[in-house]
Design brief:
Strands 1-2-6-3 form a four-stranded antiparallel β-sheet, with helices on one face. A two-stranded antiparallel ribbon has the order 4-5. Helix content is 18%, strand content 26%. By secondary structure, the chain is of the alpha+beta class. The protein has one domain.
Length: 130
Amino acid sequence: MAINKNHEFEELDGVKCAIVEKNVSPERVDFLKKLLEYNKFKVVVISSPPPKAASAAIIIEGDAAQPVESPSSTVETFTVGVTDYTFNPVNAIFGRLLHTSDGHIVTLAFWQQKELTSHDDIPYFEIDRG
């Protein structure tokens, strides 16, 4: 049982892991795996179960109604965890515990992949987000 929503853990491939993120794309898996392994965490990645089906969209043409399959149902997603089950992504980011491979501290924008580099030396309120 998780302490709170930000500190989830479960068994992945038979190993108890702290959950970093669920339902992530293969590109996000690559990003997280490289970053976490650089920070000396053992990363476990498993395929996520398909999300629960939302109500199907229906197209009505004349008198005939046809269900439309959602294109997102075919995208494979993954669950990313680390074997250090005390790991908490929120605490790691805001506690400035993670570093990039070029030596900068991981910022929230970098973690969310909104920025390609980490601006740890510039206060967040001075960054021009234009």
